[in-house]
TrEMBL record:
Domain of life per record: Bacteria
Keyword rRNA processing: no
PROSITE patterns in the record: GNAT
Keyword flag Amino-acid biosynthesis: no
Protein name per the record: N-acetyltransferase domain-containing protein
Keywords: Acyltransferase, Transferase
Residue stretches making up the N-acetyltransferase domain: 3-146
Length: 147
C-alpha cells in the first residue's frame, strides 16, 4: 500500500466536505447534530487549499490532513480518512511520521479530539499521546518524545 500526500486544490472542496461527513458525521451528529447547511458553511469557512493536504492510497483520494506550526509545536488540526481506508494503518503511519518530524524539530505534537470519538482517542493514546485537558466536548492531547 502506497500512502502519499498532495496539496489540496479548490477542486478538492467537495471531496473534503463529503469526506468530513463520512469520517466525522456520526461524531458531529452526536455532539451538535448534523445540519447539512451549517456543516457546509463551517466547511467553506475552514477549507484551506494552501494548508490542507489530500491523503492518497495507491493513487486514490482517501483522506485529508491539516497540520500547522505553532509556537514550539506542530498542531494536527485534522486527519480524516474515508471509512474504507480506516483501520488499515494509514492514519497511524501518517501520525507516526508527524511524531518523527516533531521530534526532529524539538517540537511537541498537539491535537484535539472529540470526547465521543473514543476510537481516535484510543489510537492517539496507543501512539503515545497524553491527555492535557478536557474542555467542553474536546480533549486536548500532546505527544512530546524528546524533552
Amino acid at each position: 500500500m502506497r500512502v502519499a500526500l498532495r496539496p489540496a486544490t479548490e477542486g478538492d472542496r467537495e471531496f473534503c466536505f463529503r469526506l468530513h461527513e463520512a469520517a466525522m458525521g456520526a461524531y458531529v451528529a452526536a455532539v451538535w447534530g448534523w445540519d447539512e447547511r451549517e456543516q457546509r458553511a463551517y466547511h467553506d469557512r475552514g477549507f484551506a487549499p494552501g494548508r490542507w493536504q489530500v491523503v492518497t492510497v495507491d493513487g486514490t483520494d482517501a483522506g485529508m490532513l491539516s497540520v500547522e506550526q505553532r509556537d514550539g509545536s506542530l498542531y494536527l488540526g485534522r486527519i480524516e480518512l474515508l471509512p474504507e481506508f480506516q483501520g488499515r494503518g494509514v492514519g497511524s503511519g501518517l501520525i507516526t511520521d508527524l511524531i518523527a518530524d516533531a521530534d526532529r524539530r524539538g517540537f511537541a505534537l498537539e491535537l484535539d479530539v472529540l470526547a465521543v470519538n473514543t476510537r481516535a482517542y484510543k489510537l492517539y493514546r496507543r501512539l503515545g499521546f497524553r491527555e492535557v485537558r478536557r474542555r467542553d466536548r474536546k480533549i486536548a492531547m500532546r505527544y512530546r518524545g524528546t524533552p
